[in-house]
Write a structure and sequence with these properties.
With 233 residues, the chain is of the alpha/beta class. It has 9 helices and 6 strands.
């Protein structure tokens, strides 16, 4: 069966939270004179705009102020992130990522990236971590209303690009958050959860993914789960 495999980025393929935290801290200092970090809110699986809004609320900044500043804050975040991220960011790659992507490519899977990051931030990460060559298309949380819209976009793009239909189990969603699992459920997709993020193993298991891995290091098991060749655990 042909497969469309949709990967989350942060805490699934890379762990660059230190860069995000530093960027967010500088951003809130510049706009509001307060410290703020991603880890102060449940950021996993949310868009950058949602996380900025949540942090602003936590810091006592009004919703109106946030809405008025959001466009400028997103642009400033992009610029600061590019400054903070080192040119060579391969140290942020999580275990097994490159062998898995290479194996899926070799198997003929259509690989797509979806992320809550902005286009500029995701491209900065992918360039630094040397991930850019693996994904045939990418979708960004700051450009859609909700996370499932990125999956809809990925399906529409993949069907137009390949001339094949992607429905149900021919779609695979791989991510570290409860929101990735819920997103996959909406499409009847194969849901692969990886416990490399901030949602616990217990919480991920309770959300009932099809497969749950501690990380992506066991390439053969993850490939079997994604391609449907055998049941994995």
């Amino acid at each position: 069966m042909h497969k469309l495999v949709i990967f989350d980025l942060d805490q699934t393929l890379v762990e660059a939270l230190v860069v995000h935290n530093e960027t967010m801290c500088r951003l809130f200092q510049r706009f509001y004179g307060v410290d703020a970090r991603f880890t102060e809110v449940d950021f996993t699986g949310r868009s950058l705009a949602e996380n900025i809004t949540a942090l602003a609320l936590l810091k006592g900044i009004s919703g109106e102020t946030t809405r008025n500043n959001l466009k400028d804050m997103l642009a400033t975040y992009d610029a600061i992130f590019a400054q903070v991220m080192p040119e060579d960011g391969r140290k942020y790659l999580l275990p097994g990522v490159i062998p898995l992507l290479e194996a899926l490519q070799k198997a003929g899977a259509v690989l797509v990236l979806y992320t809550g990051d902005s286009r500029a931030v995701a491209q900065t990460i992918c360039r630094a971590a040397r991930l850019g060559g693996y994904f045939r298309q990418s979708f960004y949380g700051t450009e859609v209303a909700a996370r499932p819209d990125m999956v809809r976009g990925a399906i529409h793009w993949a069907e137009g690009d390949t001339g094949k239909k992607f429905r149900g189990k021919s779609i695979v969603v791989i991510g570290d958050s409860l929101r990735d699992i819920e997103c996959g459920k909406q499409f009847g997709a194969v849901k692969i959860a990886v416990a490399t993020g901030h949602h616990s193993v217990a919480a991920l298991r309770a959300a009932e993914p099809d497969f749950l891995f501690s990380d992506l290091a066991d390439t053969k098991k993850v490939i079997r789960a994604a391609l449907g060749r055998n049941q994995a655990t």
